[in-house]
Design a protein that fits this description.
The structure holds 2 protein chains of 2 kinds. Chain A is mainly α. Chain A has 11 helices and no strands. In chain A, α2 packs antiparallel against α11 and α8 packs antiparallel against α9. Chain B is α/β, with parallel strands linked by helices. Classes of the chains: A mainly alpha, B alpha/beta. The structure holds iron/sulfur cluster (2 copies).
Chain lengths: 214, 299
């Protein structure tokens, strides 16, 4: 499915990735306001680890580097610290654009599947959707085993002292593994999310459509 | 002083058996002294924090917070919504801002909410718990309730990211907010001056997914507190509290440091200074015990 959307979007936005971002990425219309001063990249706590810190990502969008941007591991390392946002002289909502790019890349099936925060972010969403609330214990265990069973055992052992500390202080409950917190109106909750997802997909399609006709 | 009523959004990490259940306990104790009544939003759901964006697009994420707000309007009409967690506060406030900005999004959100039999009208303000105590109660009143001043304890006020940016507390600067220091002073403690990692990022959710990178950030935050002579770190954020407290052994093993710095909430400090028990302050919830506070609480 996602492959089809990707092909359709490439077709629609031939050589105009900036327009594609403007139309489809959360807060993407702001990218054109960037004046390339570099303040965001200089302020980013994980910036030194990024292949392309925010300023570069924005430049690459304008330079039509579609695949490089959408398959980048960079925006997945955003810690959502909002340092860039409060410092950007042009007031770009950089954090949200990073999240938006990450989600759009996922939607198109281009996100880097081995990036650990990609995995965590997806697991966090799945976890919250299930019961309407996060089950920290299941999320943690699920996360430690995300690279397979033997890796999982290793990570779990490494993290065991931390977990034990949380257990002892009653800040982690083994009961969460079986029952766990849940909202009551799960039916309504799921219907709401389904509707929201439908509306959002329709919006991406419609915007794509109007771009084609433009 | 008349009881102040708020509609309360506790968030997932404050639930029983969850990582900041100790935070909730101390907030309740603090509010009890200050005559603040927190009316929990019935059937509230997760806000998706700032990490659920992979699977959740913009509208589904906005719908999460909108559902909580609609429930609040329905069950706790006329009350400001208060969150104790920085991420919850931020996600909820951002939702309101985004929906106010874009009537199309507002309409779509309400279409989704209708599936759950709800409607969001945008009637109330979204506040952080520290905003409430500082703005609605005020330092003077906060100081009046102190019966066991935190004498001779030097405390580093670690404000972190999301309680500070992008909204922050009214009148405070993003680079050097002073409210935690003022709060420590109000309680009789001594704030660390020039705590230069005061607003640095702890890595947030990346402490789970990219532990090495985030632990490097955490190390600097703790080191800088030691450099300032601190015995203890205080924070308004559950993510900061957990990240800065529980990885100290791993950081010690990796960097050869000898960290053993208790990290507490402002509400822990207040509960102790207000003369309540160690249990009321949830001091048993410290992975690194806050011995000095236990002593004062036991006096
Ligand atoms: S700080 Fe703002 S204007 Fe400067 S490079 Fe970053 S996004 Fe562009
Ligand atoms: S919010 Fe994200 S992009 Fe911005 S400075 Fe923080 S980590 Fe970097």
């Amino acid at each position: 499915m996602s492959e089809d959307i990707n092909v359709a979007q490439v077709e629609r936005y031939r050589n105009n990735f900036l327009k594609e971002v403007t139309d489809n990425v959360e807060e993407g219309e702001w990218v054109r306001m960037c004046m390339q001063c570099g303040v965001c990249s200089g302020s980013c706590p994980l910036g030194p680890y990024w292949d392309h810190p925010p300023q570069e990502i924005f430049m690459m969008i304008r330079a039509n580097k579609r695949d490089e941007v959408l398959s980048s591991t960079s925006m997945w390392m955003c810690t959502s610290c909002y340092n860039c946002i409060v410092r950007c002289p042009r007031e770009l909502p950089i954090t949200h654009i990073m999240h938006g790019l990450a989600h759009y890349a996922t939607r198109l099936g281009l996100a880097p599947k081995e990036q650990p925060t990609y995995k965590f972010s997806q697991r966090f969403w799945d976890n919250l959707v299930k019961k309407g609330r996060i089950n920290e214990l299941k999320l943690g265990v699920n996360l430690y085993f995300m690279n397979g069973f033997s890796e999982g055992v290793k990570t779990s052992l490494k993290m065991a002292p931390v977990g034990l500390g949380m257990l002892k202080t009653k800040r982690m409950s083994p009961m969460e593994m079986v029952g766990g917190h849940s909202i009551k109106d799960l039916k309504g909750f799921h219907a709401m999310l389904k509707k929201a997802e439908e509306l959002e997909s329709a919006r991406v399609d419609a915007k794509g459509g109007s771009a084609k006709n433009a | 002083m008349a009881t102040k009523e708020y509609s309360f959004y506790p968030g997932c990490s404050s639930q029983k058996g969850a990582s900041s259940s100790n935070y909730l306990k101390s907030v309740e104790s603090m509010c009890d002294t200050l005559d603040i009544s927190l009316n929990t939003i019935p059937d509230w759901n997760c806000c998706s924090a700032s990490i659920g964006y992979c699977g959740g697009g913009e509208l589904p994420r906005l719908a999460l917070s909108a559902r909580n707000l609609a429930l609040s309007e329905k069950h706790n009409p006329g009350q400001d919504v208060v969150a104790s967690c920085a991420a919850c506060w931020l996600a909820t406030r951002e939702t309101v801002e985004r929906l106010e900005d874009d009537s199309g999004l507002m309409a779509e959100t309400n279409t989704a909410l209708k599936e759950a039999g709800l409607e969001f009208k945008n009637e109330n303000k979204i506040r952080h718990m520290v905003e409430v105590i500082i703005e609605d109660v005020g330092y003077e009143e906060l100081g009046k309730h102190v019966v066991k001043p935190l004498e001779d304890i030097k405390i580093a006020g670690y404000v972190g990211c999301q309680t500070n940016r992008p909204f922050g507390i009214e009148g405070e600067s993003f680079e050097n907010p002073k409210y935690l220091d003022k709060l420590v002073e109000t309680l009789g403690g001594e704030p660390v001056e020039d705590y230069d990692k005061k607003v640095s990022c702890c890595g947030g959710a990346l402490a789970f997914s990219e532990p090495e990178k985030s632990q490097a950030l955490i190390k600097d935050i703790i080191e800088s507190a030691y450099d300032g002579g601190a015995e203890m770190i205080v924070t308004p954020c559950p993510v900061c509290q957990m990240n800065v407290e529980v990885y100290q052994d791993q950081i010690n093993a990796k960097y050869g440091t000898k960290f053993k710095m208790p990290v507490v909430y402002y509400s822990t400090l207040m509960t102790v200074a207000y003369g309540k028990s160690a249990k009321d302050a949830a001091l048993e919830g410290q992975v690194i015990p806050a011995t000095r506070l236990e002593e004062i609480a036991g006096k």
